[in-house]
């Protein structure tokens, strides 16, 4: 049933106006699609509720909300403040503002949370690396207040842990692309066809589906060396092999394909990195993470890699860990 449903879902998005497509989603007996519909509804309704409550408070003259909006550092306050200060021709309508808010709030939620889960899983199994990272964070933290942005993003070992995890375990193992015109794909090195011919490029017709192997590129031993399948944050604390630069990987992040490249690259990759580092710095400074003794964790390689517990009777994402106060 999987493949007919895949074709059905791809066809629905092309049929009629949004109201009609929503009607089709509601009447089709497909639990997975209905669950996805409910998730989208929660995301949208939450965004509307937050936006409308702030808007009403401003219109009613709530001074506390006005002060928070003028001084707040959260994304919604910054977005609304920028829109209020914009010229008439540049000002966004409420619908557009709400769309931007939903994108900023929920975009990359699954991929970033998956990457954070993977880091915590790895750190729980590598206590020496966890201790070293915790010490770096504690030494950088001022006596009072938050860790400044410039210092947080420049912590070398924290950056190395994030980069190495995103290299070895990208949240998306593959991504699909469709050619919009006839193209010729150059190969990094020639290959020999079954008829004995040497091939250095592949012609790809228009409207051909192409699968980009993100994980395969990130783990290529010819590029990253014989230890390419090992998790070694220290590799980022020293010069990378010459083969990395020579490969000319088109990714926008650290010679990796994790965030893709070109015009369709991840537009929020800087934000997701910052989000990961903020969460890790707060958690690791105070808590120690160890593997659960009662749960065997395995990772489902669906569209996005997610942790689950073996023999738990459910495929829902979960990562049980032992959490203690760190000394």
Describe the structure.
The protein is an alpha+beta fold. It has two domains: 2-106; 108-171 and 218-327, Cytochrome p450 (Orthogonal Bundle). Helices cover 50% and strands 14% of the residues. It contains 14 helices and eight strands. A two-stranded antiparallel sheet has the order 1-4. A two-stranded antiparallel sheet has the order 2-3. The protein has a two-stranded antiparallel ribbon with strand order 5-8. The longest helix is centred in the first third of the chain and has 29 residues, at 31-59. The N and C termini lie far apart (53 Å).
Provide the β-strand percentage band.
5-15%
How far apart lie the N and C ends? 53 Å
Instruction: Tell me the structural class.
Output: alpha+beta
Percent helix range: 40-55%
Please write the CATH class name of the largest domain.
Mainly Alpha
Strand order of the largest sheet: 1-4
Would you count the extended β strands for me? 8
Provide mean pLDDT, rounded.
88
Question: What is the CATH superfamily classification of the largest domain?
Answer: Cytochrome P450
pLDDT below 50 for ≥5 consecutive residues: which ranges? none
Q: What integer value in Å does the Rg equal?
A: 23 Å
**CATH topology of the largest domain, what is it called?**
Cytochrome p450
Total number of helices: 14
């Amino acid at each position: 049933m999987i493949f007919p449903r895949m074709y059905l879902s791809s066809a629905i998005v092309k049929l009629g106006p949004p109201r009609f497509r929503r009607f089709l989603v509601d009447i089709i007996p497909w639990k997975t699609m209905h669950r996805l519909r409910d998730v989208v509804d929660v995301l949208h309704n939450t965004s509307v509720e937050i936006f409308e409550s702030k808007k009403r408070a401003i219109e009613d003259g709530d001074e506390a909300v006005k002060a928070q909006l003028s001084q707040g550092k959260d994304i919604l306050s910054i977005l609304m403040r920028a829109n209020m200060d914009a010229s008439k021709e540049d000002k966004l309508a409420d619908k557009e503002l709400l769309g931007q808010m939903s994108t900023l709030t929920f975009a990359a939620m699954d991929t970033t949370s998956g990457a954070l889960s993977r880091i915590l899983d790895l750190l729980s199994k590598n206590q020496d690396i966890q201790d070293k990272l915790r010490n770096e964070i504690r030494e950088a933290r001022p006596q009072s207040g938050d860790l400044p942005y410039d210092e947080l993003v420049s912590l070398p070992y924290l950056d190395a842990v994030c980069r190495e995890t995103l290299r070895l375990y990208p949240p998306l193992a593959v991504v699909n692309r469709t050619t919009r015109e006839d193209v010729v794909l150059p190969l990094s090195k020639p290959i020999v066809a079954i008829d004995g011919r040497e091939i250095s490029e592949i012609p790809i017709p228009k409207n051909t589906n192409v699968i980009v192997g993100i994980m395969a590129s990130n783990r290529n031993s010819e590029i990253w060396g014989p230890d390419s399948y090992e998790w070694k944050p220290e590799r980022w604390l020293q010069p990378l092999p010459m083969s990395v630069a020579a490969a000319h990987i088109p990714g926008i992040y650290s010679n990796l394909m994790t965030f893709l490249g070109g015009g369709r690259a991840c537009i929020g990759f800087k934000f997701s990195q910052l989000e990961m580092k903020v969460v890790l710095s707060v958690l690791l400074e105070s808590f120690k993470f160890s593997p659960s003794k009662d749960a065997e964790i395995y990772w489902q390689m669906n569209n996005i890699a997610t942790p689950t517990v073996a023999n738990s009777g459910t495929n829902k994402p979960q990562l049980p860990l032992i959490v203690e106060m760190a000394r």
